[in-house]
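Q: What changes when beta-D-glucopyranose is included in the input?
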Amino acid sequence: MEKYLDKTLTIDERTDDLLSRMTIEEKVGQMLQLSYNGLNPLDYARFKKLGIGSFFHALGGEIDDILKKTEKTRLRIPPIFGIDAIHGHALHNGATVFPSQLAMSCSFNRDLIFEMGRATAKEVAADGLDWTFSPVLCIARDLRWGRVNETFGEDSYVVGELGEAIIKGYECDGYIIACAKHYIAYGEATGGRDAYDSPITERKVREVFLEPFRKAVDAGCGSIMTAYGSIDALPLTANKHMLTDILKDELGFEGFVVTDYENVKSLVKKQHVAADIKEASEMTVEAGNDMSMNTHKFYTSVLELVKKGKISEERINDSVRRILRIKFRLGLFDGKERPPKSVISCNEHRALNHEIAQESTVLLKNDGVLPLKQNIKKIAVVGPNADSIRAQYGDWTFFSHPLPSPIAKPKGTYYTVLGGMKKVFGADKIVFEKGCDIFGHGSGIGKAVEAAKNADAVVCVIGDVLHLNGEYRDRANIELTKSQIELVERLAETGKKIIAVLVNGKPLCINLLKEKCAAIIETFNGGDFGGLAAAELIAGEFNPSGKLSISFPQSSSQMPCYYNQFDGWHGGQYVDLKKGNTYTFGDGLSFSEFAYSKLKLSKTTANKNDVIEVSVNVKNKGKMDGKETVMLFVNDVVSSILTPQMELKGFEKVFIRAGETKTVTLQLKISDLAIVKPDCTYEVESGDFEIMVGRNTKENLKAVLKVK
Ligand code: BGC
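A: The predicted holo structure follows.
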């Protein structure tokens, strides 16, 4: 038996053996990834001979089909199959559709997000795949950007913590690898325009965007995807400093780097930094990419470049070694065991999904109308998103990928808000009138107003739709659409208390709701159970614990509005707007009141390599048991460069029974207080740090820590 097939040897021994047997053609074949859609018989004939590194966007039976057509390669190196399982294995109709990353991040619950990753991995692997192109570790600070829904929000610490949790969940059973993307600073592009230039410096990259990737690397993430965009005019695909010096050498990333879709070609066609695919391929490989997603000519180009001595075989070996190591790690050579198909949307995953949906739902306003009294007789459910599962799922499901099928019927069980209200309150109590479409008046606002007049409670479900979200679907204007504004205004004129439920990909300007509605519930894209969770919250069947991971501006032109901006000389206020956001990172109500007291630091003077404990008592003063996310912010009082007035450095979600007081302890590593200096070195500067612990950015207790 060939050594590389011997399971008793180490991954490195097997990899070295296999590499020593491979021709250069076979090696370069490993560096290519092809989209299943668009492959033709000629491709198959070619790849049968040389072997191919990876395919993506094939599902279930399609994978067996590819395997049959490609299995005859000389060394029988199995391809690795990738898919965008972004919020569940949702490109497969019938799999569990979890809330979007943005929705999920509002749960601030690392354990649930870990479990979501684990469940998704099982469903992905049961379908024959080995690799998810998730999580997105981009930071959403410009809300015009179309892909805000795919992120864990606006804060680097939250993105890193939840990213680490989901990666560990994806990879813990060894079924699949994760892919942290898009490396790096992709969301920070000019004007919130997808795949544009991010006009920032390396210092800024390190200060804000690198930390989540550092955590991903430390968590053992198997792969990282290069971003489409550029930083200060240099495309990431061609950025050796970012990919090789920082990611591979400094952070010690041992997995492989895959380009984004056709990113080699885009160096020629979109970014115009290479004259042809050959030049682009050379730049891509030299920069540190290990696998090219779907630029077919990359293969012949790299081969030619190696033969001409323009790319060294050593460089190729490094990439191929990284890819093969992952294939051995996943057991692809050893007849990888897969979970049974019955895990797809199994009861256990559905129960988990339901729990995540509840914890992800954010109660933003409640004048006391919620929970609704049980003796209520008629509830009007109105609004364009009340019964829209497409709006509720958001992007990256079978509705939109791999080939858009917008009229597909979901095979799994799901609850829109209307469905949830019927289940929770009984169908006989619910009157539904859509009222309007997102754009245009549709069935008529008048009918919705009539329904509201005759009801004891009104639930109005508004937001956005799929085509206002997602890749290259940036918006210049994130106000509510005209028809929805009219709907809310007309409903408010009835004098009834309006409970607004938002089903939307990302923050919108919702001043109107704050002013006119008695309650506001934010669900973002809540997946299969988003609508049920909203209805259960309305009925008081659980105590809401979601908090915003992202801020809501008053107006589209108030961006950016993230909480941890630097203070300007004049407070950053516009003369024609009130101060502050409509809602800010950390906001989110409970049916209980949580009272914080006795903030204590285990040391009030610390050394730079200390880890201190910060503890606080939290009392649940309400009548319902509930969960509370305790947030720890710091302010570096005097620093040699600008630092934000508050920056999250810790959070913990705890369950507290009604009437109970819990002491919550958070660890604070003093090294996490480092700033990035202008020369890109890191330093914790001696002096005072204000430590703030509380519910959100506004309500917190303060103490001072001295760092020597
Ligand atoms: C997106 C990636 C995605 C890839 C494959 C690209 O257009 O930017 O996030 O993983 O397509 O579907």
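Observations recorded in class: Residues 348-539 form a domain with the Rossmann fold fold (CATH 3.40.50.1700).
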